[in-house]
Amino acid sequence: MVTGAALPERTTAVLRDEDATLAGDRLTGTVTAGRHIRRAGEECRPGEPVVPAGAAVAPAVLGLAAALGCDELPGLIAAAGGRCTGVVRLRDSRQLLVHALRTAEAEVVLVSGSSAAGPADHLRAALSALGAELVVDGVACRPGHPQALARLPGGGLVIGLPGNPLAALVAFLTLAVPALASLRGEPMPRLGQARAPGLTAHPDCTRLVPVSVRDGVAHAVGHAGSAMLRGAAVADAFAVVAPGAEPSRGDPVRLLPLALGAQPLPA
Q: Which CATH class name applies to 59-183?
């Protein structure tokens, strides 16, 4: 079963392939009830407003609109200073992915999905077949940890984005935006900062949490699951929460703005 697949009725949890151990015909691993399950309607209910009237149509709002079926809107690549030269949709096929990467005529190729370690995730195998140099092979962040950056023999870049929408947005902002800035000879985007009491840290990974910022304080806006864009659509930034202890009331966290090209949010 691959990420995004429909689950059998009464499923209580999913054990990821990378967390499982197979010995003979015995499969073992630790699962937590509700883990890695996305339930229908968990992000919003029918008829519920998801973005307030008059809100700026930023990239996350465009992505949310697409997730809700309004998918004829432009957005994220242009906001980052790039130009989309075409979109190719592929089945879960290593051969098709290899061919698409080999024939792509672009300085940067974005691959959404196929970046993790499941049976239908062919990106790394395809890059290996093409003789690409894997520069970034996963990042210790949540969401967005399966992201990848590779350099093809001809010099073109391949950026692997996770398939889940919020994870893909995080990977785009943290990997694709700096890469595009570098290609244009521009400096790395600067981060702002704010105090962030109450944000929960992950024990091992950096968390990127959609927040609103008021009077120098970052507040989580909710709806921050890796498959959700509702939180990002109404947020000002992602708070970058280091692993370990939660930020205290006086500790600042870095802020990654969601409005590309905007000035960093000050403390």
A: alpha beta
